[in-house]
Amino acid sequence: MLQPTRTKFRKAHKGRIHGHASRCNKMNYGSFGLKALQPERVISKQIEAARVALTRHMKRQGRVWSRVFPNIPVSKKPTEVRMGKGKGSPEFWACRVKPGRILFEVDGVSEQIAKEALYKASAKLPIKTKFVRRFS
Question: For 32-133, which CATH class?
Answer without folding.
Answer: alpha beta
